[in-house]
Amino acid sequence: MTYINEDIEGFQGLSMDCSFDVKTMFALCVDNCFHVLVEDKDQRVEEDSDSDFQANIDEDDNRSEVPSDEANDDDDDALSGYESDNHCEHTNWSDEELDNDPLQGCMDFGDTIFTPEPGEKITLKKGQVFTDVYQFRQVLKDYIIQEGFHCVRDKNEKQRVRVHCGGENCAWRLHASTLPDNVTYMIKVCPCEHTCTRGAVDNEVSAKWLASKLMDLLRSDPDANLKAMRHEVTKYGVKPQYMQFYRAKSIALDQIQGNHAKLFEKLPYYGTMVLATNPGSVVTLQCDVEDVEDENGLGVPQKPPTFKRFFMGLAALRDGFLSGYNPFIGFDGCHLKGPYGGVLLSAIALDGNNGLYPIAFAIVETENRDSWSFFFHNLTIMLGGFSDGKPWTFMTDRQKTISEMAPNVMNRRCARHICANFRTHFAGGALKKWFWSAARSYTSSGFNFAMYKMKELNVNAYKWLLAIPSEQWSRYAFDKRLKNDHVTNNISESFNNWIEEFRPMPFLSLLDGLRCKLMKRLTNRAAKGQKSTHELMPTVVERLNIAVEESRKCEIVVAGNDQFEIKDKRNHFVVNLSNKRCDCEEWDLSGLPCKHAIVAIKHNRQRLEDYTDKCFSREIYMTVYSHFINPINHPDFWPEHLDATPKDLQPPTYRRLPGRPKKNRRKEAGEGQSQKRSTVVRCKRCKGWGHNIRTCKGPTQSRRGATTTANGIYCRKIHNFKPLAIQKDKVKHQC
């Protein structure tokens, strides 16, 4: 193939001489210099001066066509004065001519892809270029809904799209097809203005289109309800159906959060990245593998492994907990709301400011003995065991597995859950009052008094509570070495509420979302500790201030040798500042001076900070939050040859339960049930009280007051009838 150069003033034109049979065609446009290789399998192309490309340039705002016989200069001189001209003159070509002569598309091809801005009005013009047919169809659909007309698609192929307006006597039409690269799309017939009236275009609305318009709303609020989504699309003038919103929300959330089933394959790689970026962490992935025996009796995997459980404990959380910890951990699980269900188990501790400090969490199939054993086994490996002589205490909702796996650990049971079970057997506000009085009592005398009052009310309730060891639910029997007086597992319940936004997400998005949220929490808590100027944390200071106000009602009698007798109403308490002990035993258990101790401390002109346990100090708080979680790159930037097993992890078996999926947790008795309507109902049939129309057995009440008896006899009812009144020997009916 030989190229023939034609020198034109300010332009280097290139023509060609093809002397062989070819099959495809390419066009390369560089600064309006076209190097074209035309290949046709059935026809031979001969050199023709009319088919040579001519270029129009702009010199002194005058356009002129340069004859080809003047192109005799040197190549370098010809290109030296060239200036790009992006203004191409358009010629009216028919649809057939445009499709048969794709080179004309190159002449009109601009270097800008049409991309409408969000909220911008779309205007379609001849020569607009689109990335591919899919982008063009999306823009066309937006234009149809924007203008509100019925669109008839004559051709809707990958190579060309031809549409016209279905309105009466409307001449609007549009034709677009691919450029020579067979990918880029361009409008080749410029549409005229519509002459029809605007109409409904709900038939153009699809779930995919609706998802693209709801993307921003669902990205900021994944739990947006139907009312919010309808308000979002009101500006487009469409009224989609309920199921369209349902499908659109699913599509949008899959694009935002990821597909639930497809993301299971990335879980092994995610665990590997966590270990690589946060050395010392504990990550365990447990799978189910179905094996079948071959001819030799050996087990051979029949199907790819399926997901079962995933445990993750980050090194920064472990190191912070062990560096200044109070050995108290709360365990709980919350149900996940995705299509594959599951339960998130968690281990939560408390920091010096009485704030949540998550240690580890795991995704399991359900909450049973095996899943808790899996979680506690990995937690033991992470923390190095619980036999170091510290007063380890676990708060649970009666998970027997944890108490069996750690027999040397003190086990507390959540008093709120005990109360809920207690009220199912023994109802009454008085019994509930004495139960909480017994649970919150710091002294054995207060506990025995509350139990005695309960015994007077109901002996069976008294025996039911005595069957539960008091060291599991009453403060007076707790280990005084642990400076913690919690009787409920609210720390775990608060954590479950704190992660509410992640519970409907895919497992990978949930785990990574928790990691990012914990990473941010550690940084914010460290900054909060640095800003604090007090030796104690703000929550502790607030609690001490309340005790100081209450101490003003107490009287003090000095006994000497740092011993005092404090009179509080009708009770007397002995305070020993040297031993940091008070007979009310609140100081012994909580680690914070009680109101009786505060009176003695103030009398000696001493500071409360010196008598507060060191676990509440700012120094320990900063030590705990001196460890940070390292970030992880987006999956697109993970190493290509990342070693992780298994390679093709599959989701667990999907078991869809009957009925509509439940997302709201079932609240227990006394947990703040939502207000319901009055239990006294009125029948719409007979207007009677205490029953509804389904169970009505009375006569039918008509609107005018007539009733129908069981025998079908109509009676007239007189409203507001009053007895006879005799006035001046005249009888009057007062109706």
* Integer count of domains: 7
- Percent of residues in helices comes to 25-40%
| Physical arrangement of strands within the biggest beta sheet | 12-15-18-17-16-19-20
Main sheet: strands, sense, barrel: 7 strands, mixed
Tally of individual helices: 22
Strand composition percent = 15-25%
Q: Which structural category fits the helices and strands?
A: alpha+beta
Low-pLDDT regions:
1-93, 98-110, 705-735
Tell me the overall shape: elongated
Summed over residues and divided by their number, the pLDDT gives a mean of: 79
Distance between the termini: 114 Å
Number of distinct beta strands: 29
What's the gyration radius in Å? Answer: 40 Å
Describe the structure.
- The protein is an alpha+beta fold and 735 residues long.
- It has 7 domains: 86 residues, no CATH class; 115 residues, no CATH class; 47 residues, no CATH class; 180 residues, no CATH class; 74 residues, no CATH class; 79 residues, no CATH class; 51 residues, no CATH class.
- 30% of the residues lie in helices and 20% in strands.
- The protein has 22 helices and 29 strands.
- The strands form 9 sheets. The protein has a 7-stranded mixed beta sheet with strand order 12-15-18-17-16-19-20, sandwiched between helices. The protein has a 5-stranded antiparallel beta sheet with strand order 7-11-10-9-8. A 4-stranded antiparallel beta sheet has the order 21-22-23-24.
- A hairpin with a 5-residue loop joins strand 26 and strand 27.
- Helix 13 packs antiparallel against helix 14 and helix 15 packs across helix 16.
- The longest helix has 25 residues.
- The N terminus and C terminus are likely disordered.
